[in-house]
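User: Here's a structure from my thesis project, written as structure tokens. My advisor, Dr. K., wants to see whether a designed sequence matches the one we expressed. Can you design one independently, without my sequence as a hint?
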């Protein structure tokens, strides 16, 4: 599993719509609205680096209302508990 954290600057008037469109993209697991210099953070979790490029460059960046993005690839997760809970199928 490859995880990317995508910082999104969006048209302020369109943040809810932009967030919903991003959340609906295949490979996007969560979208958070945040305070600070960026408006949204999207978590992208896919099987390969090539799929990160597909999700971000081919789909996410083309959502109307996005002004800019900055993508960070995660190397390692330090909280296995949080990851296990996020991907648990409830067993």
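Assistant: Designed independently from the structure alone:
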């Amino acid at each position: 599993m490859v995880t990317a954290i995508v910082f999104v600057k969006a048209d302020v008037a369109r943040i809810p719509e932009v967030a919903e469109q991003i959340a609906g993209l295949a490979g996007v697991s969560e979208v958070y609205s945040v305070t600070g210099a960026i408006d949204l953070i999207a978590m992208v979790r896919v099987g390969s680096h090539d799929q990160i490029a597909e999700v971000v460059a081919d789909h996410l960046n083309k959502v109307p209302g996005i002004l800019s993005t900055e993508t960070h690839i995660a190397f390692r997760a330090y909280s296995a508990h949080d990851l296990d809970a996020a991907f648990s199928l409830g067993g």
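When you compare it with your expressed construct, this may help: Residues 2-87 form a domain with the Alpha-Beta Plaits fold (CATH 3.30.70.920).
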